[in-house]
């Protein structure tokens, strides 16, 4: 795969301008992105929890989808209309309250029209994933 076409700073600027509903309030930070992988952090907030005190599925799915978008943009550049065509999530264990959620995304295949990747979602500093995601993105014609 190619080297990064967008730096973390360029990604952040693009996302603040083009996708503010997902990246404007500062709760998600891009810790790294290199054109093949990225690491995102969502700071803990009580709004992430579902009844029973675990991180909610919608929180994890949104984080995984956003991580895939970020790693894809880092690989192909500012293509705002790249969209999710498939997302599969396996919930593996409880995400603990009080812990940030980390999303480690990796592109598995980058084609001209489709990209396939995976995301491991982690709770705080635990190395054991709380969810595993595979996703496919459609890349529009230039």
From TrEMBL:
The chain crosses the membrane at residues 66-89. The keyword Lipid metabolism does not apply. Pfam families: 4HBT. One of its GO terms (cellular component) is cytosol. Keywords: Hydrolase, Membrane, Transmembrane, Transmembrane helix. SUPFAM superfamilies: Thioesterase/thiol ester dehydrase-isomerase. It comes from the Bacteria. GO terms for molecular function: 1,4-dihydroxy-2-naphthoyl-CoA thioesterase activity. CDD domains: PaaI_thioesterase (cd03443). Residues 52-124 form the Thioesterase domain. The keyword Hydrolase applies. NCBIfam families: unchar_dom_1 (TIGR00369). This is PaaI family thioesterase. The lineage of its organism: Bacteria, Pseudomonadati, Pseudomonadota, Alphaproteobacteria, Hyphomicrobiales.
């Amino acid at each position: 795969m190619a080297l990064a076409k967008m730096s973390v700073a360029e990604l952040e600027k693009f996302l603040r301008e083009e996708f503010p509903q997902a990246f404007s309030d500062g709760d998600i930070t891009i810790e790294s992105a290199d054109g093949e992988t990225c690491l995102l952090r969502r700071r803990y907030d009580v709004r992430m929890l579902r009844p029973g005190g675990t991180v909610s599925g919608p929180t994890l799915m949104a984080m995984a989808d956003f991580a895939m978008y970020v790693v894809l943009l880092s690989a192909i550049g500012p293509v705002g209309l790249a969209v999710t065509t498939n997302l599969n999530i396996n919930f593996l264990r409880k995400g603990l309250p009080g812990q940030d959620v980390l999303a480690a995304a990796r592109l598995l295949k980058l084609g001209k029209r489709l990209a396939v990747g995976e995301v491991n979602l982690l709770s705080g500093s635990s190395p054991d994933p709380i969810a595993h995601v595979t996703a496919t993105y459609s890349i529009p014609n230039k």
